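Here comes an entry:

___
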Amino acid sequence: MACLVVILSGFVDLPRLFSVGSISLLGILSVVYFCAGLLLLPHLSLGVSLLSTKILPLLAFSLWAAISLLWTPVPLHGIQNILVVSSMLIMIWVAEGTASVDPSFAFWLVRMVHRGVLLAIALYASSMIIFGPGTSDVIGARSFGVFALFGVAHCLAKWRYGSRAGLLEALVLTLLIGLSQSRLALGIAVALFPLAQLPGAKIGRLIRMAAVMVTATVASYWALIYFDSLRNRFLTGDLSLKVGSWAINVSGRLSFWRVTRQSFEEAPIWGKGAGSAEVLIESVFV
């Protein structure tokens, strides 16, 4: 089950291109993952606490979102998001329970996630060769950028604990994220480099962190200056965000948040239910 989920995740959002009636294959997979997770819950080890303090906030959020379907005006729009969050919660329980019985499962899962990232890289890199940087024709650029962050974090973790190959892999992944022109994902990826070398007990780690921070900053600035497509992605369009003397393209997000905040102020305690913000934004901007 874990193998199937991880490998299919390597396709990122490609299943959105296929549909069965009015439901995309991506939506169908969300339902399948949730139902499969429910079937696995009864087999959890007795030593696994479903109310662990580490995941209690996620559990509370999932329950509240599900309850809000009772008063949302558009329940169908909220169900898929709730299924995705709930599936993640269930998979955390299942992974914890499996690892408590078989500790080698954790190492196996890390390897499988790495293979899933490699699959996503192969698919997106191939689509860039055909359609050019920033393409979303096969896999969504933003979706790829966010998914590739798992790979960046994994590779940087290897680097932190002595693997120089991990640093090289993280750099290549960050380059691909940059070519996808996913700005938020690129910013997070760059920030992960110094975070991976947070100061420990030794001064050497502090020096390494400073060196990586300077290198990542210079490389990002160089890419922004010399890559026209990336620069245009940042500095043209909706320039409603000011960072010093730079005006940053936020693709209308500030307008989205402004409308969403106004809706929140109308029902600050109970909210308007899962899916309501999506429908609101579509009604105003689409």
Observations:
- The two ends are 39 Å apart (CA to CA).
